[in-house]
Amino acid sequence: MLIAAIASLPRPVVPADSSPPNTPNPTSRYHLAATFEVGGPCGWDYISVDPESRRLYVPHVSQVDVLDADTGKRVGTITDTPGVHGIALAPELRKAFTSNGKADSVSVVDLDTLSHTAEIKTGKDPDAIIYDPGTKRVFVSNGESDNITAINAVTGKVDGTIPLEGGPEYLAADGKGTLWVNVQEKNSVVTMDANNLKVIKHTATPGCQAPTSLAADPENRRLFIGCRGGTLAIVDADAGTVIKTAPIGQHVDSTIFDARNRLIFSSTGDGFITILHQDSPDVYSVMDTVKTMRGAKTMALDPKTGTLYLPTAKNLPPGLTGPPKPSQKSGPFVVLALEK
């Protein structure tokens, strides 16, 4: 992430020619189909796609560039989002919500005009952000104040704050009142009541060092947790048991579950996407490891087309697996589009 929740955790230095964690299998057939040159400052985190409007939202540094998801052409820009990490889309409300890490705020944005309609104060360093249609709430992880802010997406008011015992990382919701979040420094995942804004339980994740990325399969009650130690952990969300771990690359920051095709994707900053197939709720097989580019640690999936989008920068300094410092020359800033 742009600003690590746990700054003391060591980050791996990966050479540019590092090997993939799994043997590639051509059955996935994912490949680089296009590179969208965005330009501008080379700092990035989460990326989001709206499959219906065909818009791709690309946060970086202090703005969110909005691209045509099919052509990569810029169609607009959301400005004044200092230290933006991510953007949560609520298309049915015609709203979006940005997490502004340097302003300790969330901006409410009109999706039609891309203009700000409200600014909401959060905890310190708001980072990962999601919209839960089940509760019509936006949940944002505050990395430096060890809590989660719950925002009513309809009214734009803060409904409450959920305190945690460490810095929260990525979140996932089942749409039926349950919310999960990784706590990286505790090697655990926290289950919460998304309606009453209370912690239900803490679950340790053995075999998963520094859990960071998170996706959920609500139907089968499974969590897919990307671990900075180089593994993906599949967890029974209710029993709290780790069903399987699989090797992935280094510096994971995004995991996605494709329910239609029963696929799990984990993207890592050393330049790989590991793809697993859900054969059954308890059986998983590694399908492929796809080469991307160093720094491409986050991604979004277009459920309509199956396209994966990953932001990164060309010409990153050797060994770097995320955004460069301002003093480190790199670029241009790009979005990779991978298709089957």
Tell me about this structure.
The protein is mainly β and 340 residues long. Helices cover 0% and strands 51% of the residues. It contains no helices and 28 strands. The chain has strands spanning 31-37, 48-50, 55-60, 63-68, 74-78, 84-90, 95-100, 105-110, 116-121, 126-132, 137-142, 147-152, 158-163, 168-173, 178-183, 188-193, 198-204, 211-217, 222-227, 231-236, 242-247, 252-258, 263-268, 272-280, 283-291, 300-301, 308-313, 333-339. The strands form seven sheets. Strands 1-28-27-26 form a four-stranded antiparallel beta sheet, with no helix packed on it. Strands 2-3-4-5 form a four-stranded antiparallel beta sheet, with no helix packed on it. It starts with 30 loop residues before the first strand and ends with a strand.
